[in-house]
Amino acid sequence: MEKKEVKVVEDKKSILHIENRKRLVLNGVVEVISFNEEQIVLNTNLGTLNIKGQGLKMNKLDVQNGDVTIIGMISSCIYTNNQEKKQKEKLISRLFK
C-alpha cells in the first residue's frame, strides 16, 4: 500500500503589528513599490499597502521571508485591492459605452 503525502496549502497570510504608532512590523511583503519619509507603498499577499506618516524609515527588510520593520510616526495604513480597481473600471466603462 502506497502512502500519499498530503500537502496543506496555507492561505496567503499577512500579519501587521503597530506599536505606539512608532514601529510597524509586517510580514507577507512581496515587494517594495516606493518609499520616502512620508509614504511607503508595499505590495503584500493581500494587496497593496500604503503607509503614511512622518520620518518613516525601513529599519529591517527581509525580501526572502517578506518581513519589513518600519520606524517613524505612523498616521495611516491603507490596503487597496487590485480587484476593486478592476470592478470600478468595468462600472465606468459600462456607463460610458
Descriptive overview:
- The protein is globular.
- It has one domain (16-95): Immunoglobulin-like, CATH 2.60.40.
- Helices cover 14% and strands 54% of the residues.
- A hairpin with a 2-residue loop joins strand 4 and strand 5.
- The termini are far apart.
- The protein is mainly β and 97 residues long.
- It has a 6-stranded antiparallel sheet with strand order 1-2-6-5-4-3, with helices on one face.
- The longest helix is centred in the C-terminal third of the chain and has 14 residues, at 82-95.
- Residues 3-10 have low confidence and may be disordered.
Major sheet characteristics: 6 strands, antiparallel
Number-wise, the strands total 6
Order of strands across the biggest sheet?
Answer: 1-2-6-5-4-3
Strand content: over 45%
**By helix and strand content, what is the structural category?**
mainly beta
The CATH topology: Immunoglobulin-like
As a whole number of angstroms, the C-alpha radius of gyration is: 18 Å
Tally of separate domains: 1
Named at the architecture level, the CATH assignment is: Sandwich
Q: What is the CATH C level class, in words?
A: Mainly Beta
Parts with pLDDT < 50 across at least 5 consecutive residues? 3-10
The count of helical stretches stands at 1
Portion in helices: 10-25%
What pattern of helices and strands is seen along the backbone? Answer: EEEEEEH
Shape type: globular
Q: How far do the termini sit from each other?
A: 62 Å
Q: Averaged pLDDT, please?
A: 82
